[in-house]
Structures are given as C-alpha cells and as structure tokens.
Design brief:
single chain; mainly alpha; Serine Threonine Protein Phosphatase 5, Tetratricopeptide repeat; 0% strand
C-alpha cells in the first residue's frame, strides 16, 4: 500500500518540479499540493518537509508570501526536530526569499547567514555557492559593499573549485557591479573581462553578450566612447547571430548614440535605420528612433529625409500625447523646411512648436516621469534612465522632492548593469 502511495507521490513531485523549472508556478503548486496530501498519508516527516519547501517555492514565485512563509516555517520545524541540517538550510533560504519579497533585507541577510552556517560539510558545494551568491545580492541591495564582495568571492571560488564555469562567469559580473559601485573601475573591468573570457571559452553566447554589454556600459559612462563602440559592435553581432531581434533593435539604437558622440554620423544613421527596421512596435520607442534619425540626417544636411522621418516621429508623439517631444520634432521640422526654402510651411511648424512648448514645466516633468515608467516597464532601461535624469533636473529647478526619482535612477542603473541577474535559473544543472 505504502509503496503505491510513494510511487504516486514521486510522480506528482516530478511533474511539479518540471513545471517549476519551466516557470509555470501555478501548475507546479497544483501538483505539489496533491503530492503533499500523499506525503501526509505516508507519515514520513522528511518527505513532508521536502514537499513543503517546493510547494512554498512555487508560492513565493507567485507572490503568495504569507502561504510561502507558513510552509517554509513548517518545513524548518520538521527538519529541526529531525536534526536534518540540509533541510534546515534550505528552509532558512526559503524564509530569506520571503523576507526579500517583503523588502526586509536585514532579515533576509540573517536567514541566509544562518542557512550557510548550518549547511552540512558533506552536501553539494555548488548549492552552498548559490547561498553565498544570494546573500551577496542582499548585501548589494543594502549597499554593504565589503560584505557583498566577500560573499561573491566565496561563491565564485566554490564554482571555480568544482568546475561550474558558468557560475564563475556570472559571479565575476556581480563582483564587477560591486567594484564599480565603489568606483574601482579598473578592477571592475578586470572581472568583466574574466567573465567574457569564460563565456567565450564555454561558447555560451547569451551569457557572453550580457557580459560585454556591462563592459560597454561602463566604458560609455566613463566616456571611453571608442572602446564602448568596439564593445557594442560585438554585442550587435552576437544578437544578430542569436536572432534576438528586440535586443538587436535596442543595441543598435544605443550604438548609434555612441557613434553620435564620436561624430560618426554616417555610421550612426546606418545603425538607426537597422534599429527601426527590426523594431516590432509602433510606439514611443519607434518615435524616438525616427526623431534621432531625422536629427542626424539634418546634421548631414539631408533635409528632405530629415523632414520625412521627423514627421513620422511627430505623428507618434501626437498619438501618445507627448507634447514635449512633439514640440521638439515640430521645431526641427521647421528648421529643415527653412533650409529647403519652404518658408510658409516652416512658419506653420514654428507656430505648432510654440503651442506645444507653452505647456507648463510641470507637465514636462509629468511627461518625463511617464516616459521613464513606460520604458522601465518595457525593460528599455537606457531610455528609462535618460528620462528619469530629465525628471530629476526639472524637479530640482522647481524645488520638487527628488528622493523617489533618485531612488528610481539607482534602481534602473543596477538593472542596466545587471540585466541578466544571477538567479536560480543559472543553476538548473546543479
């Protein structure tokens, strides 16, 4: 009888774990709930604790924080009674994830520290590496850079010793983030280059492209535009090879900005056209691309093409009610029309531009905020960062409270440099 129940329990657990790995958390929860009923019939505490932990994991992923916390605590109590230290460590790590979901970072750090402390010496070292990594990310959120650096190094050392090169590369990126935040630019570059070397040797192009992006972004922020250009060209080539067209559009758009800084307008126009060609949406992102393209063409004195693209941008800005950007587009169209000798039409666009610019500066502030939030939600972090900075400038001029905007800038800056955040997805093969 018990053998049949155990077999059915294993089958349900396996199905739940498949869905958990695929990110289908509701289905995983459903199977874990069914298996938990069988686990209770078996009356084997260690099985119930294991089941509860996975059930709670599926719930925390869905934002069911209270249910997840209850399950992890119950699993911890069972493992403590059994003196099952591996189970205790895993339940503590689960409770740390609950604290993170509640934005209780000190509590999360304490749970992770305890999970590491009780982790058995004879248990898999790579799982311990992941616990160090998770703790390091909590320390990073707290901006406790010394502790973050120490824990990331411990995690990376374990990955190196036990041959998990992907983890070693990802941890080098996280270390670079910590070093960069401490203004240790050369050390950050060194870790990023190490990460690139590992991913290149492993022929892991998706991880490699992310590492190069971080390196390029640092070079761009440090105004090392020539090196940023070289890095970003590699990014574009890799995304083209991977056929990730949305990323191709984003990377070529940013490359065009770098080329503009280098005054290479011809190549910048080429990459902007490519960015537009592969862009799949008719929205503000497309409008910004047309606007930038028109402005670059005006610099090249190709006023006919500039007018055509700026008018496409204006249509999109008008559609989405973005008066500030619409006014900018109208003004540039007016100047291009003047160069083409179309004086009457030029004057009409000057009037349109004036009307758009007459909106109060507070509306401009609101527009920038909405654009920033829009692009943040679309994970177009470079655009989001640009608009948050503009919002900050206007807010400072108007004497508006800036704390929330500054926090948003810090949040987005982290996301730009840590776009493929080191997570349990990287550990599927452990």
């Amino acid at each position: 009888m018990n053998d049949d129940i155990l077999r059915d329990w294993r089958s349900l657990m396996e199905k739940g774990t498949v869905f958990l790995g695929q990110g289908d958390y509701p289905k995983a929860e459903k199977y874990y709930l069914r298996s938990l009923k069988l686990a209770k019939r078996l009356a084997i505490p260690v099985i119930s604790a294991f089941n509860l932990r996975l059930l709670s994991t599926s719930r925390i992923k869905q934002g069911k924080v209270a249910l997840a916390e209850r399950g992890f605590k119950e699993a911890l109590k069972i493992c403590q009674q059994l003196q099952n230290y591996k189970g205790m460590s895993e339940a503590m790590a689960g409770l740390a994830s609950v604290a993170e979901a509640q934005d209780k970072m000190e509590e999360a750090a304490t749970w992770y520290e305890q999970a590491i402390q009780v982790y058995p010496l004879n248990s898999p070292r790579l799982r311990l590496s992941m616990l160090f990594s998770d703790l390091g990310q909590v320390y990073s959120e707290q901006e406790n850079w010394d502790k973050a650096q120490y824990t990331f190094r411990k995690a990376r050392e374990l990955c190196h010793i036990y041959g998990y090169r992907k983890g070693e590369g990802e941890l080098s990126i996280l270390l670079a983030e910590v070093l960069y935040r401490q203004n240790k630019i050369q050390l950050a570059r060194k870790d990023l280059l190490q990460s690139c070397k590992i991913f290149s040797e492993e022929k892991d192009e998706e991880s490699l492209v992310n590492a190069i992006q971080y390196l390029a972004f640092i070079n761009f922020e440090e105004e090392n535009f020539a090196q940023a250009r070289e890095d970003w060209q590699r990014v574009v080539v890799l995304y083209l090879r991977l056929a990730q067209w949305e990323n191709v559009s984003e990377s070529t758009y940013f490359l065009a900005k770098i080329l503009e800084e280098l005054r290479d307008f011809t190549e910048a126009v080429y990459y902007l056209k490519l960015s537009i060609e592969v862009y799949k949406h008719e929205d503000l992102g497309l409008g910004l691309r047309y606007q930038n393209l028109g402005q670059l063409q005006a610099m090249q004195k190709d006023y006919q093409a500039a007018c055509a693209n700026l008018k496409k941008a204006a249509e999109l800005f008008e559609k989405y009610g973005e008066e500030q950007k619409l006014g900018e587009a109208y003004e540039k169209i007016a100047l291009c029309l003047e160069q083409l000798g179309e004086i009457q039409e030029s004057q009409e666009y000057h009037v349109k531009s004036k009307v758009s610019h007459e909106s109060h500066q507070l509306i401009s502030f609101s527009t920038n905020q909405r654009l920033a939030e829009y692009f943040e939600n679309r994970r177009s972090y470079l655009n989001a960062l640009q608009y948050y900075w503009q919002s900050l400038k206007i807010a400072q001029e108007l004497g508006i409270e800036t704390i929330k905007i500054e926090q948003a800038i810090q949040r987005i800056s982290k996301k730009v440099r840590k776009r493929n955040k080191y997570s349990d997805r990287n550990w599927n093969n452990i």
